[in-house]
Amino acid sequence: MSKNKSMFECFIILIYILNILVILFFPFRKIKTKLEFDLYMNDRLEIINLVKQQKSIYNDNNIFVLPNEYKKVSTSGKIIIYKNSSEDTMIGFWIFRGMMSGSVQIIYSSGGEDLIMNSNLDIQHIAQLAENWFYVEIK
């Protein structure tokens, strides 16, 4: 009986160790970003068109509250408009919105990576997802 109990305890410890390893090393943010990027692409394009046309969407220091049907495309149901002019458009959709731990955004930039890099963002990491679309980690 004690041999079975000992094996069971070892099995439980092994499960705990595996859970810790998964939590520490599995790229949750990147997986979530990839899934949401493909899933919400059409909705995000519609939002970009709404912003360019300056329709709807409540403004609070360039943070815009999305209409109910679009809230799912950005954490907290808000986007940030960094730039919206006839020349350039740069809009951030939050994947993770942190205060002390930083944020992760999918950013649409009509000016490509250069427009993002020339902004006042404290960028930790940037990677292109598609034409004009970027995965950006901000400190």
Key traits:
elongated; seven-stranded antiparallel sheet; 139 residues; single chain; alpha+beta
Main sheet: strand order: 1-2-3-4-5-7-6
Radius of gyration: 20 Å
Tally of helical segments = 4
Query: Could you give the order of the helices and strands?
Result: HHHEEEEEHEE
**Mean pLDDT reading:** 88
Oligomer: single chain
Helix/strand/pairing category: alpha+beta
Q: Give a count of the beta strands, DSSP E runs of length 2 or more.
A: 7
Compact description:
With 139 residues, this protein is an alpha+beta fold. The chain contains four helices and seven strands, in the order αααβββββαββ.
Structure, described:
The termini are far apart. The protein has helices at 2-25, 28-39, 41-52, 112-117, and strands at residues 58-60, 63-65, 78-84, 89-97, 103-109, 123-130, 133-138. It is of the alpha+beta class. Strand 4 (89-97) and strand 5 (103-109) form a beta hairpin. 39% of the residues lie in helices and 31% in strands. The longest helix is centred in the N-terminal third of the chain and has 24 residues, at 2-25. It has a seven-stranded antiparallel beta sheet.
